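Milestone M4 deliverable, item 7.
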Amino acid sequence: MHCKLIGAPVQDGTGRMGCEMGPSAFRAAGLRQALEELGHEVTDLGNVTPAAQRNITHHNPALKNLSAVVAWIEALEQEAYAHSADGFPVFLGGDHALAAGTVSGLSRRAKEQGRPLFVLWLDAHTDFHTLETTVSGNLHGTPVAYYTGRKGFEGVFPDVKAPVDPANVCMIGIRSVDPAERIAIRDTAITVNDMRMIDEHGVVALLTRFLRKVKEANGLLHVSLDVDFLDPSIAPAVGTTVPGGATFREAHLIMEMLHDSALVTSFEAVELNPFLDERGRTACLMVDLIASLMGRSVMDRPTRSFV
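Output delivered:
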C-alpha cells in the first residue's frame, strides 16, 4: 500500500498549547520506519500550511481562534480531497478540529466515486457542538456536527460539499458528552457506543456490526483516532484526559480487526500533545497502533521500556 503521511499541526481548536508538535512526534517515534518494515511504500508529504486567514466573526463570544480554524479547514479539505485520489492518506495531528477539513474532503472524493463514506470515530467525546452551542469555544468540539451537515455553521465554516450521512458514523469509546451534544445527537442516526457498551458487549461485537454495514454498502472507511480514546494511564499526552478509556489490548484489537477487514481507506491520529508526554510513551503507542492497523500482528510487536 502507498501510505501518504500528511502533517496537520493544528492547535487552534484546543485550549492548550502543544498539539502543533504532534506531527513531529509521530515522525520521531518512527512511524515511517514502522510502515516500511511492514512492506508499505511511504511518502512523507510534510506539513499542511493553512489557507490565508480572513477576519471572521460570530455572535458567540466564547469562540476561540475562529479565523485560524477556518483557514485550517479550507486547507485540509483540499489536501484530503487531492491525496485520497490514490494511495492511503494518514493525517498526523494536531487537534481534532482538523477532522472538519479532512472528513469533508474525503467525503467529496467518495461522492465523486459514487461510494458512501463511513467514519469510525474513536474518541472520548462526540465533538457534536455547533458554533452556536459550544460553551468552551474550543472548536475541536465541532467537527462531527460540521461534516454531517448539522445546522449552525452557515456563512462561517466553508460549505460542506458532500455531508457524511450520520447513519454512516460509528463512535466507540465515548465517555464525556456535554448536555447540548447529548440532546442533539439523540435526534440523529449516529451510532454512539459509550464505555458501558464496551463493558457489556466488548469491542468485537460493536466493531463487527459496523464493519459489516460498511462492506454491504461498498463504502470507503475513514478512521479517526483521538489519543483520549485511550485510558490516560497508557496515553497521558493529551490535553483532554478522561478516565476509563480503552485499554492497550482493546485498542490493538480494534486496529487488527480493521486491518483484517481490508475496508479502511484513510486514517488520522489526533490530539497528540508531546509537551504532556512521558519520554515519548504516547507517541510510541500511537505509532504501534497505526502499525497494527497496517498489518503488524501481535507476534511481531516490539518490546518497549520507558523506565
